[in-house]
Amino acid sequence: MPSFEFNGKTIETDDEGYLQNLDNWNKEIAGYLAKTEGVTLTEKHWQLIEWIRAYFQQFQVAPAIKSLVKEIGKLENIQDKKEANKFLYDLFPEGPAKQLAKIAGLPKPTGCV
Amino acid sequence: MAKPKEKYKVPVLDGNINIPRIVPGASAYEHMIEAQKDDMEALGFPSKLQDGWKEKAIGVFKEILDNNKALRDYMDICVRCGACTDKCQFFLGTSDPNNMPVQRQELMRKVYRYYFTPAGFFKNLSNSQELTEEVLKDWFTYFYQCSECRRCSLYCPYGIDTAEVTMAARQIMDSIGLGQKYATEVIHKVFKTGNNIGIPAPALRNTLDDLEEEIKDETGKDVKIPMDVEGVDVLLVPPSADFFAMPHMESLKGYAKVFHKAGISYTVSSYASEAGNFGMFLGSYKNMKEINKRIWDEARRLKVKRVIVGECGHAWRAAYQYSNTMNGPFDFLDSKYKSPTHICDFTLDLINKGAIRLDKSANDDKVVTFHDSCNVARGSRMGDYRGGQFEIPRQLIKAAANHFVELREGTTRESTFCCGAGGGLLTEEVMNIRIAGSMPRMQTVKEAVDNHKVNFYALICAICKTQFSKIFPTYGFDAEMVGGIHQLVSNAIIL
Q1: Are residues B315 and B168 in the same domain?
Q2: CATH class of the domain whose range is A3-103
Q3: Is residue B463 part of a domain?
Q4: A113, B197: Cβ pair inside 8 Å?
Q5: Domain's final residue, options B128, B146, B176
Q6: Would the CB atoms of B243 and A63 count as touching at under 8 Å?
Q7: Which residue of A lies nearest to B425 if distances are taken between CA atoms?
Q8: Residue B33: inside a domain
Q9: CB-CB under 8 Å, B206 with A111
Q10: N or C: at which end does chain A have fewer Cβ atoms within 10 angstroms?
C-alpha cells in the first residue's frame, strides 16, 4: 500500500494519494496534501475544509458541488452562483470535489463525477 | 477555471481529423490502477492474480466462447480489411496501433488461435500467441483504452461488435483477479449504498432539500423532489451524478419541474439511486444483473406504474436493452407505458400533448449543439420509431431553444464520436488517454464554436457531462458551455 512519512509516522494512502485512514488527518497533514496538489492553503481554504469535514462526519459522503458553491457564496457573500463557482475553482483549480476531499482527508469521490 | 496540468499532452486543434502515422507503444505508458482487494471480493472475483491464473483464464475464455456464439464468430470472421482502423477516437488521438480496433482485438484473437484453433499449433504460420504475463499486460493496458463505444462496429462490414470483445477480455481478466479500481470500486458502492458515489439515504434527502430550496429561490414555486414514496405513478432513476455533480444537477432540476408542472406523481429512490450500470463496462453479466435488479425490485416495492430513466447513456442501454431478460417480466407495471421510458421521450411527449409549455426565449442567449452519446446512439433506441434516439433529443432541444446547430456531418447520430471517457475510462490515471480520445470530437467543437458561435454543448449522458466539463478547459473552452438537455428545459419551462 502506498504511504508517506510524516513527522516520523507512516501515513497510508490509496493509489491516488487519498488518506486510507481518515483518523490520520490533522492540519499539518492537510498542509502536506495541499502541497502535493499545488495548492497553498489560505483562511478561505480552511473554512471549506472544516465545513466539508463536518458534512462528511454527519452524512458519510462529501457534499454535492452545488452545496459547496452555496457554502462559499455564503462565506464570501457572493450572490452570483457563477461567480461563486469561479471562486471555488480558483481555490481548487483541479476541481473542488476531488482536491478538497483529498486535502480534507476524505476518500476520493467516485462515480461519474 | 481549471488550468491544464503541465503533464497533460493536449493536441492542437486545427479543425482536421487526420489519420495519424502510427507510433508503436505510444500510449502504453498510461494504464488503469489495479482494483482493491475488498472491491474485487465484493464483486465475486479473486482479489489478485494467483498461481494457475493462466489455466483459469483459458478456462473462462472457453466458457465464454461456449456460451456466446457471437464472440466465437467475432474471433473467427475478421478478414482484416482495415475498415475500422481510423474509426476509433483513441487511435486517432494516440497514434498507437494497438488502439486500432482490429489490432486491439488481435491481442485477443492471437490467444484465441493458440488455444482454440487447430492452426494455433503452428505459431508462426497462424500468428498465434500463448497467454503470457506480457500479453496480459497488453490486455490490461489496451482493453482499458477502449470505451466500448462501438463506433468501429458501425463501419465493420462483418458487423463485429468490438465492444463485446473488449468486455470479454475484461471479464477474463476480472475472473483471474486482474481488475480495474475505478469500476470495481463504483460497483461495490452500489451494493453498499445504492449508487456509484456512495450517497446514503440521509445525505440524498439533504441534497434534494437543498435543491428544492434553490428552485424555490429561483422560481418562487414549491417544486418537490420526493424520495422513497410508495404508490406514486413514476419511479425516476437518474444517474447518481445528477445528485452530486455539475452541470448534472441542473438537469435534475429540469426533471423535477417537468413532473411538477405536468402534475404526475413520482419519486426517486434511495435504494435504486443509480441508473448507471458499470457491470456492463466489465462485461460481467452477474454484476450487471444485480445492479439492474435494484431498479425493478424498487419499482415493485414502491408499487409504481412505470419507470423513467434520467440522462445517462450506458444506463439507458443497460435499462432499455437488458432489463427484461435480466429481471423481467414487468407485468406488475402499467402496460400503457414503455418501461423503461427515457426522460427525453417523456418530456417531449408532454410538450407535444400540451401538458407543459416551454418559453424558448429563455435560452436565447445560447447557440446549442448536441453530442449524441454512443450508448444511446449505437446501443439502444428511444420512442416508437427507428432513429427515435436521434430525433427525440433534437426535437426536445428545438422545443426549448431557438438556436440549434448540428456538429460536423459524419460525426453525429450513429457516427458520433465517443467523449473519450466512456466504458470505465472516466478516471484520472488515464487523463492523457481521455484528452487524446476526445481530440476528434474537440476538432468538431472548435469548428462549431468558430463558425456558428456555439456556446452550449447539450448532452444526455453523465459521463459525457463530466468528461467534457474537464476536457473543455484543457482545450481552451469554457466548462460552463457543457450541460444537459433538461437544463435547457429547466430554463424554459413555464411553471
Answers
A1: no
A2: mainly alpha
A3: yes
A4: yes
A5: B176
A6: no
A7: A112
A8: no
A9: no
A10: N
| B42 assigned to some structural domain | no
- The pTM score is 0.97
Q: Does B480 touch chain A (CB under 8 A)?
A: yes
Cβ contact (<8 Å) for A61 and B429?
Answer: no
State the Cα torsion B346-B349-B351-B356 to the nearest 10°: -60
- Chain B residue with CA closest to A84: the answer is B1
Do B238 and B145 have their domain in common? no
B466 touches chain A (CB under 8 A): yes
> From CA B428, how far away is CA B383, in angstroms rounded?
35
- In this predicted complex, what is the ipTM? 0.95
Mention every residue, 6+ apart, whose C-beta is less than 8 A from residue B406. Answer: B369, B370, B412
Mean pLDDT, 10 residues at a time, chain B of 495 residues: 63 94 96 96 97 97 96 97 97 98 97 95 88 98 98 97 97 98 98 97 97 96 98 98 97 98 98 98 96 98 98 97 96 95 98 98 98 97 96 98 98 98 97 98 98 98 97 95 98 98
Q: In CATH, what number is assigned to the domain containing residue B145?
A: 1.10.1060
Do B76 and B205 share a domain, yes or no?
Answer: no
Distance from CA of B59 to the nearest CA of A (A): 31
**Cα nearest neighbour of B35 on chain A:** A15
Residues of B in contact with A69 (CB under 8 A): 246
* Cα→Cα distances A28→A24, A46, A56, A57, B16, Å: 11, 12, 20, 20, 49
Quick check: B196 and A64 CB within 8 A? no
DSSP B159-183: ---HHHHHHHHHHHHHHTT--BHHH
| A86 contact residues in B (CB cutoff 8 A) | 1
